[in-house]
C-alpha cells in the first residue's frame, strides 16, 4: 500500500482517478520533466531519473486501476477458481501468488498475520478463496516461466 500512496502522490492523483485522467496527468508530467528540454548534463540526468519514476508510477497505477481490474475480471476469476496455487510468498508488503496455469497475482495490504494463517492453513487455496481473492487490491504480475526439462 505504501508504494501505491507514493505513486499517487508523485503524480498528484486521487484514488478515484480514471485511466483517461491518469494518461493526461502522465503526459503533462512527462512534458514538464523531459530530458530533451534540459541544457546541462546535470539537469538532463535529474530529468531522466524523474521521468523514470513517473513512467514506473504511471504503469503501476494503470495496473491497479479499477477499470483495468474490471477489464481482466473474467480471466482473474477463471484463474482463481479453476487453477491451483503453485507457490506463494510475501515480499515488500505484498503477497505474490503463482498459479499452476502460469499466472501470478500481487496482492496489496495483506497483513502479515493473514499471510501466516495462509501458510499454516490445511488448504492454502481454500484459505485464499475465502480471505484474500475478494478482499485485497491486486494486479497481475508477470507470468512465471515453467522450466521444461
What does this 3D model show about the protein?
The protein is of the alpha+beta class and 149 residues long. It folds into 2 domains: 2-70, Helix Hairpins (Orthogonal Bundle); 72-141, no CATH class. It has 7 helices and 4 strands, in the order αααααβββααβ. A 4-stranded antiparallel beta sheet has the order 1-2-3-4, with no helix packed on it. Residues 144-149 have low confidence and may be disordered.
Helix content: 40-55%
Radius of gyration: 18 Å
Q: If strands are numbered along the chain, what order do they take across the biggest sheet?
A: 1-2-3-4
For the terminal residues, how far apart are their CA atoms?
38 Å
Mean pLDDT: 89
What characterizes the major β-sheet?
4 strands, antiparallel
Helical segment tally? 7
Backbone structural class: alpha+beta
Give the ordered list of helices and strands.
Answer: HHHHHEEEHHE
Number of domains: 2
